[in-house]
Amino acid sequence: MKRMEAILLKLVIIQLVFLIIAQSLLLYTPLSFYLGKIYEYEGISKQEKTKTIETIIDR
Known about the structure:
Order of helices and strands: HHH
Structural class: mainly alpha
Largest sheet: none
Number of helices: 3
Radius of gyration: 22 Å
Shape: elongated
Number of strands: 0
Helix content: 55-70%
């Protein structure tokens, strides 16, 4: 059991290191300009209001 816990701990530490590296790349490098386009494709960055039509269901 201790061996499994040691492996899991190593995996968590490796994941944490990669998370810190990825966050630093996104925040402090010019690479973030190119990765920021993803938000435009998903439609998150535009804060436009959409027209809504209210309808009444026939009873």
